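Researcher: I'd like a candidate sequence for this fold, 77 residues long. If you have to choose between options at a position, lean toward the conservative one.
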């Protein structure tokens, strides 16, 4: 994650969805030149870092982990 004034930038899709759900405005999303996702939010109140920690301690993060694990099992077979 990288920060600029009034911006919060992440490459994590699940965190981006969480920030969007929390009401932080998504300004731009896409892929970087190296193929990583990039989500840029207008974080006018500077809540991005707090919400990132909230996400890591939430059931949303646990849910995402389980979705990814099940998805891996599906693609192995």
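Model: Candidate sequence:
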């Amino acid at each position: 994650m990288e920060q600029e004034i009034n911006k919060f930038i992440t490459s994590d899709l699940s965190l981006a969805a969480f920030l969007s759900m929390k009401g932080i405005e998504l300004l731009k999303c896409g892929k970087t030149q190296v193929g990583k996702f990039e989500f840029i939010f207008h974080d006018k109140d500077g809540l991005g870092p707090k919400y990132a920690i909230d996400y890591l301690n939430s059931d949303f993060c646990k849910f995402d982990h389980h979705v990814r694990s099940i998805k891996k099992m599906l693609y192995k077979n």
